[in-house]
Write a structure and sequence with these properties.
heterodimer, A: about 290 residues, alpha/beta, two-stranded antiparallel sheet, 9 helices, 11 strands, B: two-stranded antiparallel sheet, 25 helices, globular
């Protein structure tokens, strides 16, 4: 125990990440549709009902099919409105909405190009949403593989959770990556494999659990009546995320599409895109 | 020349005495003490062996050899030559309750009491560390500082001194150094890390003065002089308090480590340290409490060994060993892991060193050095102590302070130095404080430099000396004043 590295590890482990609550301002919402004007307004009303947690002091604007033809025009609209939040759905102006294989070019561009987050609702022409979804957002699921320290992600989840609602903070550690590293460690005679497996797994799951506790404490301190529920587990398959949504009957799923501070790296160990395709039946908030 | 420099010159001359007068006088003294006489040539041969060993130890980093191997080699050489030249017998005889035991002379020559204290204390500390006690204390202090750099420096500084006193210098530096790196990193104050690490490195050697078991020279000298744990503490503590305050105040000024001023900065720093969890390293609450209680009892037991029946005869090594055993029972299935973690290089170093010094004693080398030392002793308690302190500090800055302390302890004992003599304290203070002059002067400053380099902070040998020398001079001057005015 008198080894320098051992004590450094102990202190690094004790130096938990603090969670800083930051209220997020959403003043302007742009609802992008490929519907005609009246249907676009109806869709806007549905979105308003779902996202009533944003409050009354929000300017909602609907975009209908006649207002843009291509991505450039859509981005010009974004530039003109400067929204804090965009609401839309998959496969705008495309028949590909019938198949669950793509997000469509417009949504892809919105997600990749825009700063503000995008809420992706189930397609209005398909009746595929979960029975509990699209009423309000009193059960919000935040999902990531790197929860510890991602205060921004958590704050978005908090923003969209109704008072007295439940915020599920799910940290899913990639077991595929873990197994790959363990197989390499298994080839290194100087590192005891069983010990490495046990302790690394324990620490990978302990840190996010501790962070979630810090989130609950901070929200309580700030007087926010939100129940935070931890979900910390190993996994990597998209189907596991879908199970989380269904088991917890979530109204909204929040996740990053890119690692914070690194536009090259796909979030969620590369499954963010696949997740966006898979979770068609529940609203998504994509950061 | 001043009388001080004359004394230093004379003691050096004693080492390379070319006149037969010194050797003859040494031989006569040796004969009177019960050793058989050896020729001057033999004494000079073994003196050369001793000098070679000291030089080789000083160059251990350069030759990439562990200390224990160096002293092992010289122990083999010294014992072989010693017996071949009829300086030492092949075996020693020890009588226990009327029964005579035979053992090899190189075994009898080792001070097993010192080794027992070091071995048992290190096991005790190692097992107690597992309880999370020391990291808990360290993190609690970090949180108490609210992230203010000035408070952090004082708290870490005092913690360094107390940990050095109770644990050992190296462990103290490892704990405080690694925590400084993590906490200052978290606070976004990494620019202050170099200052913190340097001050903490210097404070480990001051903390090493606080108790009898705080450093190996203390144990060696304390045992030789018959100084009890409590007496040692009572004498050393006032100096340690003053030197700690002086070092921290000087360090804060030099490295501009100041209080936070704005409320925003204070709030932000406070939030960051509040996120530390002092309980993170505690796997068992019960063992944590047990470790805390046992640590307190350990100090009390060592302090009162001289008055505890039975234990007073068996010595501190026995007491420390008992505590080590009790702590080990918590990990009864894994004791081998703790045995493996013992610094066997250090234990081996001591054992072989004692074997060498035992041969040197019989070869009259120590008596020869002692002749030089009598010039210093002849200066009187005040000047003699000052000279001895300064000389010890200079030598221990470039070579290991343990052989120095071991030799001087033997010599002072052979000269019949009384337990109250300030000369013992001169050796203690000099041997400990000399380690602050150079980065290789003590194991704990080596650790400080390791942490500095690990964090990619610029610090060369010359840079360290340049920064550390003013502190070391101030500490040594304070020690001289203390020994001369208070202890003489």
């Amino acid at each position: 125990m008198t080894n320098l590295d051992q004590f450094e590890s102990l202190f690094n482990a004790a130096a938990h990440e603090a969670f800083g609550y930051r209220p997020l301002d959403v003043k302007r919402v742009l609802v992008v549709t490929d519907l005609d004007e009246s249907d676009a307004q109806a869709f806007l009303a549905r979105a308003q009902e779902l996202l009533s947690v944003l409050g009354d002091d929000v300017a909602w604007t609907a975009v209908h099919k006649g207002q843009f033809d291509d991505c450039d025009q859509l981005l010009d609209l974004m530039g003109n409105h400067q929204p804090d939040l965009v609401v839309s759905y998959r496969n705008l102006k495309s028949l590909a909405y019938k198949w669950p294989y793509s997000l469509g070019v417009f949504l892809n561009v919105l997600i990749r190009q825009l700063e503000p987050p995008v809420v992706v609702l189930p397609h209005p022409k398909l009746d595929e949403r979960y029975s509990w979804a699209e009423i309000n957002t009193d059960r919000v699921l935040v999902v990531t593989d790197h929860l510890t320290g991602d205060a921004d992600l958590v704050n978005w989840g908090v923003r969209f959770t109704e008072p007295k609602g439940k915020l599920f903070l799910a940290h899913v550690e990639s077991d595929a990556d873990f197994d790959r590293y363990m197989s390499v460690i298994g080839k290194l005679p100087d590192i005891p494999t069983d010990l490495a497996r046990e302790q690394i797994k324990e620490r990978l799951l302990k840190d996010p659990a501790g962070y979630i506790e810090a989130v609950q404490k901070e929200l309580t301190r700030e007087g926010l009546d939100i129940d935070v529920e931890p979900i910390v587990k190993m996994g990597h398959k998209v189907s596991e995320y879908r199970s989380l949504v269904e088991e917890n009957q979530c109204d909204l799923v929040v996740f990053r599409t890119r690692e914070p501070g690194n536009t090259e790296a796909l979030a969620l160990h590369g499954v963010a895109y696949a997740l966006a395709l898979e979770l068609r039946r529940v609203p998504l908030l994509m950061l | 020349m001043t009388s001080l420099s004359q004394a230093l010159f004379a003691s050096l001359s004693g080492l390379v005495a070319t006149t037969g007068e010194h050797a003859e006088a040494a031989g006569e003294a040796a004969h009177a003490a019960g050793h058989h006489a050896v020729s001057f040539a033999t004494t000079m041969l073994f003196t050369a062996v001793l000098v070679m060993m000291v030089l080789t130890l000083a160059l251990e980093e350069k030759i990439h050899a562990k200390k224990s191997l160096i002293t092992f080699g010289f122990a083999v050489l010294a014992v072989f030559l010693g017996h071949a030249l009829d300086v030492i017998p092949g075996e020693a005889m020890v009588t226990i309750a009327g029964e005579t035991l035979h053992m090899p002379v190189y075994v009898a020559g080792v001070d097993w009491g010192v080794i027992a204290i070091i071995l048992a204390s290190s096991i005790f500390v190692d097992v107690t560390s597992k309880s999370g006690l020391f990291t808990w204390i360290a993190i609690k202090l970090t949180k108490a500082s609210r992230g203010d750099p000035s408070k952090l420096l004082w708290y870490y500084g005092i913690m360094t001194v107390l940990f050095s006193a109770v644990l050992n210098n190296v462990t103290a530096m490892i704990i405080v150094g690694s925590l400084s790196a993590v906490s200052l990193g978290k606070l976004g104050q990494r620019d202050r890390l170099l200052g913190f690490l340097l001050i903490e490195g210097l404070l480990t050697n001051i903390g090493g003065l606080l108790t009898l078991i705080s450093s190996v020279p203390n144990i060696i000298v304390g045992q030789a002089a018959g100084i009890s744990f409590i007496r040692f503490f009572v004498v050393a503590a006032p100096y340690v308090v003053l030197a700690t305050a002086l070092t921290i105040v000087m360090g804060a000024k030099l490295f501009k480590i100041e209080k936070l001023t704005s409320e925003e900065e204070k709030r932000a720093a406070s939030e960051k340290v509040d996120a530390f969890d002092e309980n993170d390293g505690i796997t068992s609450e019960a063992f944590f409490r047990f470790g805390a209680v046992m640590s307190g009892l350990f100090i009390v037991a060592l302090a009162t060994t001289s008055i505890i029946p039975v234990a007073q005869d068996l010595g501190m090594g026995f007491v420390a060993g008992t505590f080590a055993f009790v702590m080990l029972t918590r990990y009864k299935h894994e004791v081998d892991e703790f045995y493996k973690a013992v610094d066997w290089d250090l234990i081996g170093f001591f054992a072989f060193l004692f074997a060498v010094i035992n041969v040197m004693e019989h070869a009259q080398v120590l008596a020869l050095i002692g002749q030089g030392l009598t010039h210093i002793v002849a200066l009187g308690p005040k000047l003699g102590s000052a000279a001895l302190l300064a000389a010890s500090a200079i030598f221990s800055s470039v070579t290991d302070n343990i052989p120095l302390a071991a030799m001087l302890a033997k010599i002072l004992k052979s000269l019949g130095t009384s337990a109250d003599s300030p000369l013992w304290w001169a050796v203690v203070f000099g041997a400990n404080l000399g380690g602050n002059i150079t980065p290789i002067g003590s194991a704990s400053t080596v650790v400080a430099v390791t942490v500095i380099h690990k964090n990619n902070l610029p610090m060369t040998f010359g840079g360290f000396v340049k920064v550390a020398v003013p502190y070391a001079i101030a500490q040594i001057i304070l020690a001289v004043v203390y020994v001369v005015l208070v202890l003489s």
